[in-house]
Amino acid sequence: MKKGILTASVIVLSILALLMLCVLLILAKMGAMVDRSVQIVEQSGWVSDKTAVDPNLETAEPGEISEKEDDVYVEVSDEDYYESPIYKQIPIDENVINLLLVGQDSTIGSGASTRSDSCIIASYDRIDKKVKLVSVMRDTWVQIEGHNWNRINAAYSFGGIGLLMNTINDTYELDMQDYIIIGFDQFAKVIDRIGGIDMKITAKEASYINGQLGRKEYEERSQTIHMNGEVALIYSRCRRVGGVFERDTRQRKVIMTIYQTLARNYDAKSVSELLNFALENVRTNIPENRLFTLALELLGIARELQIEQDHVPFDGGWKYARIRGKAVLSIDLPYNIEELHEFLYD
After folding, report:
1. Residues with pLDDT less than 70, the chain
2. pLDDT digit string, tens, across residues 98-122
3. In this predicted model, what pLDDT tens digit does every residue of 317-342 receive, in sequence order?
4. How deeply is 240 buried, as exposed, middle or buried, from its count of CB atoms within 10 A (0-12, 13-18, 19+)?
5. Where are the beta strands (DSSP E) in the chain?
6. Candidates 3.30.420.590, 3.40.640.10, 3.30.830.10, 3.30.870.10; CATH matching 4-193+268-345
7. Closest CA to 166 of 341, 78, 46, 285
8. CA-based R_g, the chain, Å
9. Rounded distance between C-alpha atoms, residue 180 and residue 285, angstroms
10. SS3 (DSSP) at 132
11. How far apart are CA 165 and CA 285, in angstroms?
């Protein structure tokens, strides 16, 4: 398994590296900003078949996948949408905290018009002093409770954050209960609020960004550029250069770059102001007191903290497929469960 490792330098609030997808750690304004609309309930008893493969899938080669097939999304009417509860989970390891970071392709809220365009498992191992970021590939073809087979991110359109978390927990046998959600419009605002970020880009990425901006802002060569919120959003969502796997790698790079930017430029007062700015830009069900407790813990190990990254499905555990005009990833589920648990817990 390949793991990119970043040793964290000392910062005033290293908690930002763990609990913020582009500065997602927030304070609960007067104790009222924690999202309690999604209940945590006992499990329904439904469990997917971990050995099953959808017989309707057709094998496809990478060069056969068209942009049109890649862009097919599930359509859900407001009448069919429901807010699923989160199923209660028994912690796999009391020393490992897992939470779900979701990038939503509309403004913060819920309903049939929203999609989870980006999904990352953030894991903190208190014993090994490591943070691990795992991108959940949105095109993974899985079983969803009440909806047969579909792309894993379709769960968010069907039943909100609850059904998405339940689906990921069921598919990969995880124990997540907590989430943080940011809309992409809000993502750009937060990047601007911290003064932008410096990112290394390739010639192809520069060309793509220029095309999306509608002007030649950057020379089309490998270079480091300073990105404002608009450009960082274009960069993070780009899948036309290198496909969805490289796109998700870019998103994890952005998280770590934000971490480094905050480490260089922010003191406690500045971070406090930034957190207040982020109040209206995210949804989370994590209570304020838990955020502070974890923050104090991470502050004490900042010199030792490491960040590792990967994606699921893992290399060697998936293949391209298509179904009903959609390009999807058919996965070896037992293999990926074993690899993910080894990555998170060993």
Report:
1. 1-36, 63-73, 105-115, 259-260, 262-281, 288-289, 291-292, 295-296, 298-300, 302-303
2. 999 888 765 445 554 466 778 889 9
3. 999 999 988 889 999 999 999 999 99
4. middle
5. 4-7, 40-41, 58-59, 86-87, 96-104, 116-125, 130-136, 141-143, 149-151, 178-183, 197-201, 223-227, 282-284, 306-312, 318-323, 326-331
6. 3.30.420.590
7. 46
8. 19
9. 7
10. strand
11. 13
Q: What is the pLDDT of residue 6?
A: 34
Any idea how long the chain is? 346
H or E segment to which residue 338 belongs? helix 333-345
Structure-token pair, residue 215: 């002007």
Q: Which residues pair with 235 in a beta bridge?
A: none
Are 307 and 6 in contact by the 8 Å Cβ rule? The answer is yes
User: At which residue do the structure tokens 């807010």 appear?
Assistant: 83
Token pair, residue 319, equals 């293949």
* CA 85 – CA 63 distance, rounded (Å): 40
The domain locations on the chain are 4-193+268-345
Which residue is associated with the tokens 């509860």?
Answer: 85
Q: How many CB atoms lie within 10 A of CB 325?
A: 9
The torsion of the CA quartet 314, 224, 266, 6, rounded to 10 degrees, works out to 30
Cα→Cα distances 283→36, 47, 169, 278, 343, Å: 10, 28, 20, 10, 27
**Residue 32 token pair:** 């009222």
Q: What are the pLDDT digits (tens) for 243-263?
A: 777 887 888 788 778 766 766
pLDDT at 239: 80
Residue 27 pLDDT: 34
